[in-house]
Amino acid sequence: MSIKLKEFNEQIHRSKLENFNLDLCNNNSTELFVKRDDLIHHEVSGNKWRKLKWNFFEALKNDCNTLSTYGGAYSNHLLATASLGHELGINTRGYVRGHELNPKSNALLERCKELDMDLRFIDRKTYTQNKFQNGLCVDGKDRLWCIPEGGANRLGIRGCAEIIEETNNDFDFIFVAQGTCTTSMGILSVMNPKSKLVVVPVLKGFNSVNAMLKLNQRHKSYFNQSKIIVLDQYHFGGYAKKKSYLVSFYK
Known about the structure:
The protein is an alpha/beta fold and 251 residues long. The protein contains nine helices and ten strands. The chain folds into two domains: 2-38 and 157-250, no CATH class; 46-151, Rossmann fold (3-Layer(aba) Sandwich), CATH 3.40.50.1100. Helix 2 (46-61) crosses helix 3 (76-88) and helix 3 packs parallel to helix 4 (107-114). The chain is globular, with a radius of gyration of 18 Å.
């Protein structure tokens, strides 16, 4: 396991800070950079890897045999947990929102099942009541390390802080998409005092500041509202929604 963990931790070096050329923005007075966390892992999207890293280490430290977490039918966090658990030889359990679903409901859930994740489909009320489970849990003979929905805990925030710690931390503005606020809070906790954090919620009607405050209350991170700028008009109708002109842009 120690060799696998060493290799796992070294994957972080694949992330690069690249100068990004965009004719509309780059000029003599502006430099634009992109932190390429998408290069860290072939199946796990970058910030998901960050949020899981210290949770994995803590699970092993506490002799847990299973990682347990929560997610919706299209949760990349569930897939990330299943993939890294499979890679490191740790059992994974995923509680999925929607008791009407099953492992064949979509390609993402099928992939989680292929990666040996124990999928448990629960009704929405039960899901909402339990999605913040965090830390060591015992279920019969199983010692579970419970990770909240989206990896939104103190360890996830710590992992996301490393996104900035790996740079020279000399930016006027840092832009990040926002879902659970874990990445936002990690960046906010370590960024240069002169920087502003610009958050772009992916959810329609999402109150970024309140959500960040709640996460801060649960996990005692750093919060300074004066450092935050919210751009909440770019959700394109809600999570995973898109418009034709957005597709044209990124193609």
